[in-house]
Specification:
With 391 residues, the chain is an alpha/beta fold. It has a domain at 314-389: Roll (Ubiquitin-like (UB roll)). Helix content is 37%, strand content 20%. The protein has 13 helices and 14 strands. It has helices at residues 13-21, 50-53, 93-99, 129-154, 160-166, 174-184, 196-210, 225-236, 247-258, 278-295, 300-311, 346-353, 355-359; strands at 2-7, 38-47, 64-65, 68-77, 104-110, 213-218, 241-244, 262-264, 269-271, 314-320, 338-341, 361-366, 371-373, 384-389. The strands form 3 sheets. Strands 1, 2, 3, 4, 5, 6 and 7 form a 7-stranded mixed beta sheet that branches. A 5-stranded mixed beta sheet has the order 11-10-14-12-13. Helix 1 (13-21) runs parallel beside helix 9 (247-258), helix 4 (129-154) crosses helix 7 (196-210) and helix 6 packs across helix 7 (196-210). The longest helix is centred in the middle third of the chain and has 26 residues, at 129-154. The radius of gyration is 23 Å and the shape is flat. The model is unreliable at 24-35 (pLDDT under 50).
Length: 391
């Protein structure tokens, strides 16, 4: 799974990336700080089954903190997108190509209204926050349309399956193309014959299907943020999830937590270093008053969890080899947490673990109920499952 963080220049994308990953992406108050895409790992959160089992888990590739399991998610921070990017302006098509492999998009908007469309700092509250969304949508749709046109020409006279293969780099499937053909009543035999407006609408629909978006309304510590968040919800609330966030506050709290200065659980914090300088204490008190007390959290973890579990409709399943002790063959309890699409079956879990396991699978076992379940049994969130195979 890959989540791309996009938006105009200087909206706070790299700060959000660092807050999610504790990475070291360059951050500065000027456009195009990010040239090459930054890649890192963030962690979605889910209640760990060890809580109800009364056993301590031993995660292989993540942490479990206070009963909350952290599930690794790949995150990509790409260069800022400006108007005309699909024609080469700004970082141009480099940005658009970086987005191609993503499963969903976090679109960062500047809720403080303090940056113009090109990312230049201006007086807070004077920028139109809606432009942060409009420009990105326009550029993405123009890019998709260009990709569609170029590949429709290559597929001229061929089957629609050939067109789908050419678009696979954008994670477009035959299901997506069949959907748009049905909805727009298009000719599936010759994509090149589609009318200009049909091609444009088809590209837009498939972009929305294959690159779902959630909006991160950043910089909510600004006095102008509240009205801009309301404005975003009014204009885009029916289309996108709108999440008020304070990426810089989240980053500050996570770094302070890492250094033992505070105890931070993702929502609230308490100072754990009595000898902390007065200036730092004042900064933390400001975060608590302007962000935590007002919004309940910085919004960053909720944003990521929404992307994974709502936007991408994922569940977490815990595979084990020993259903009695809920462990692998080394005795580690609940060692792995695997994300699957909601509605996935036990055979899908087997395939996610290893293709050979799926090929030789006999059945599965619900470890808590100690009941055999079929290969086509639909799994549920938080389920602990053993795969039984001939190997």
């Amino acid at each position: 799974m890959l989540i791309a963080i996009i938006g105009g220049p200087n909206k706070g994308k790299s700060t959000l990336f660092n807050a999610l990953t504790l990475g070291n992406a360059q951050v500065a108050n000027y456009p195009f700080t990010t040239i090459d895409p930054n890649r890192g790992v963030a962690f979605a959160s889910a209640v760990c089954p060890h809580v109800r089992l009364g056993r301590q888990c031993n995660p292989n590739n993540s942490k479990c903190e206070e009963g909350i399991r952290k599930i690794p998610i790949n995150v990509l921070d790409v260069a800022g997108l400006v108007e005309g990017a699909h024609e080469g302006k700004g970082m141009g098509n480099q940005f658009l190509s970086d987005v191609a492999a993503s499963d969903c998009i976090i679109l960062v908007a500047d809720a403080s209204g303090s940056t113009d469309p090109d990312g230049n700092p201006i007086a807070p509250g004077t920028a139109d926050v809606l432009q942060d969304i409009e420009i990105i949508e326009t550029e993405l749709d123009a890019w998709y349309l260009d990709v569609f046109k170029r590949n429709a020409l290559k597929a001229r006279g061929k089957k629609i399956e050939d067109f789908a293969n050419l678009l696979s780099g954008l994670k477009i499937t035959m299901d997506d193309l069949n959907y748009v053909v049905r909805v727009l009543e298009l000719n599936p035999q010759d994509v090149w014959s589609w009318e200009k407006e049909d091609m444009k609408e088809a590209a837009k629909i498939i972009r929305e299907r294959t690159k779902p978006i959630v909006i991160a309304a950043n910089k909510i510590d600004s006095e102008f943020a509240e009205k801009n968040v309301l404005k975003l919800k009014e204009f885009y609330g029916k289309k996108y999830g709108i999440f008020p966030i304070a990426a810089d506050s989240e980053l500050a709290l996570r770094k302070a937590n890492e250094k033992g200065m505070v105890k931070y659980n993702g929502k609230t914090f308490e100072i754990s270093m009595p000898s902390m300088p007065a200036q730092l204490i004042s900064a933390l008190e400001k975060i608590n008053k302007n962000i935590i007390e007002k919004y309940g959290s910085t919004g960053v973890q909720a944003l990521l969890d929404n992307c994974v579990f709502s936007l991408l409709n994922q569940i977490v399943v815990y595979p084990v080899e020993d259903e009695v002790h809920f462990a692998n063959h080394f005795g580690k309890v609940l060692p792995d947490a695997i994300l699957l699409k909601n509605g996935s079956k036990s055979i899908d879990l087997a395939g996610k673990i290893h293709s050979d396991l799926a090929a030789h699978m006999l059945h599965a076992v619900d470890a808590e109920k100690k009941m055999r379940i079929a290969k086509d049994a639909v799994l549920h969130d938080g389920q602990i499952v053993k795969i039984v195979s001939t190997k």
